Here is the input.
Amino acid sequence: MAAQASWARKLPAGNDSASFEIAYATSAQLALESDELHGSGSPRIIGNSAALRRVLGTARIVAPTDSTVLINGETGTGKELIAEAIHKWSGRPNGPFVKVNCAAIPAGLLESELFGHERGAYTGAVARVIGRFERAHRGTLLLDEIGDLPLELQPKLLRVIEERKFERLGGAATIDTDVRLICATHRNLAEMVDNREFRADLFYRLNVFPIELPPLRERREDIRLLVHHFAMDCAARINKRITAISEDFMATAAWHPWPGNVRELQNFIERSVILSTDGVLSGSRPEVTGTLKLSAPVTLEEAERSHIRHTLQETKGVIGGRNGAAARLGLPRTTLIYKMRRLGINRGRGLCTFAKVARSPD
Here is the structure.
């Protein structure tokens, strides 16, 4: 930690007027890596938003049980980190934590990967191989991208869950297994069941305790902490001095939609650190991909106006109520109306436009 803090210094006088000074955060604020997380050997999870705290609180509740957990979330939201945290908080933290990505292994090899095989089970099987279920005995097995599990393998997985027994491919001996199962997916398994792409009985077995991970755009208050953390981490890794992050850069990052979520943000910050020539991450950044639009500086007022307008479009102009724009933005209804008037945003026919004359009545 001291090494990370060693390069965090103020900008020289005259250059720090529009910058966010990097200093090592003292922090329960910087990360939920505080005593409750990091001290227990859990993975580093950065954020302080209510949405993230709800997820971690739910994970803590289910962790001591052996119930199957199904983690749903878009790509890049940190499903594997939450699964690992559940393992660390469980009654088997000293057992193995075994991961397998069902989408990354060819369908013809996945059965052997999960359950193992005996010598001679198929052409090329020259030795016995222990599968992931066997390796995860008395620990936790994470089946990532479970929605990509081939239909022909789903009954075999269902049997292991129900009976806690399996056979290696080509073997006759039945093997008992004591495994806590966690599954993760970015796909809608309920829709897949309706479309006959996923077995209903397996879905109900996996969906014992679902946890929904919010996308990064729904916990924007964590973005500054993440930018700060990734900038520090990358600079330390590549031994590059980064002294400050400009407010333009921070504001633009805070309101970008980030379809790739935390993973996309992390990659962008790494590129920005590499491209920095003056030790400052600024809004004037050369565009390095066709999907990121972070090169043009954005003021805080412009970012706020854009975000409110986008939220009102999503709610079709509805401000109040449980599903209204005020609730989504975490603001009292009167505060949102005040901000709309101040920023010159009109509401009409469910869509929001910029008012030509600010302060027009609602």
In short: The two ends are 51 Å apart (CA to CA). The longest helix spans residues 223-238.
